[in-house]
Design goal:
Radius of gyration: 21 Å
Strand content: 25-35%
Shape: elongated
CATH architecture of the largest domain: 3-Layer(aba) Sandwich
Oligomer: single chain
Structural class: alpha+beta
CATH topology of the largest domain: Rossmann fold
Number of helices: 6
């Protein structure tokens, strides 16, 4: 097989690791294209909630080669009237349910970047009412990895489901309010406040200190984890360029008893100068 057969396929689901669902999807893909390179992006995203998966997809896809096929399945409406769709963005392909999961990606890709998947000849038959990951999304990804063009899978649509990820808002003259969108395995609380938001908040004053408050606790914003004592909370710009709340060598979600949706406020304060 040629180089096209070695295309990368990522999998992002809420399936977890205690059932064979992910493995079966891989089997379907490999039956179609034995040379496909399959990467498990993440299978622990919040069950039945496309918003967390959408955030993880938006912050992750650009680290893969152009031409990568990303399969995302968080699908509480499986078997119902919601459509399977195929989106394109920045030279990447995205396959998943039309429930908002691919909405933020589609918005980046332009008005003609989304297609309804209607070509049943690419599906695994019979199609189960409970496992479209196996019967629709995996085989479509497999055929895409062999070079099938997106227009072979269905017609362009513009009425796909939009999902707007929460944006930070102004909270006073010198503060912004955000919320937690994701908790990683270390218990770090990843917010929707980006590096650019913090730079804008700090602009206008040459000497500024930024502090964050969440569930009544204040924490300094530092450059790296070890700048606070073990067991103490802090905040840092994480690898995805979003502000995250952490506990050095601990679990912020447990210590602060905060989860997804928790609000945080970042305030700009004038730093005190020493004499």
């Amino acid at each position: 097989m040629g180089d096209d057969a070695r295309r990368v396929i990522t999998l992002l689901t809420d399936f977890g690791g205690s059932d064979p669902f992910v493995g079966v999807m891989k089997g379907v893909i490999l039956e179609i294209n034995p040379d496909a390179v399959i990467v498990d992006l993440y299978h622990g995203t919040a069950a039945h909630d496309p918003s967390e998966a959408a955030f993880l997809l938006v912050t992750s896809y650009r680290y893969f080669p152009r031409g990568t096929i990303h399969v995302a399945v968080v699908d509480p409406g499986v078997g119902g009237p919601r459509r399977p769709i195929l989106a394109t963005c920045d030279g990447h392909l995205f396959v998943g349910p039309d429930n908002g999961l691919l909405g933020p990606i589609a918005e980046r890709g332009g008005p003609s970047s989304v297609r309804a998947i209607t070509a049943a000849r690419y599906f695994l038959q019979p199609v189960s009412a409970t496992f479209h990951g196996r019967d629709i999304f995996a085989p479509v990804a497999g055929h895409l990895s062999l070079g099938a063009e997106p227009d072979r899978f269905g017609h362009p649509i513009e009425d796909y489901v939009r999902l707007t990820l929460p944006r930070p808002s102004q909270s006073g003259a010198r503060s912004i309010k955000g919320e937690i969108l994701h908790i990683d395995r270390f218990g770090n609380l990843v917010s929707n406040i980006a590096r650019d938001d913090l730079e804008l908040l700090a602009s206008g004053s040459p000497i500024t200190t930024l502090r964050v408050e969440i569930v009544g606790r204040k924490a300094p914003i530092v450059a790296y984890y070890a700048q606070v004592a073990p067991g103490a909370p802090g905040a840092v710009i994480g690898s995805a360029d979003y502000l995250e709340i952490f506990v050095h060598e601990g679990d912020a979600s447990r210590l602060l008893r905060a989860g997804r949706g928790a609000e945080l406020v970042v305030s700009s304060e004038k730093a005190e100068l020493g004499v």
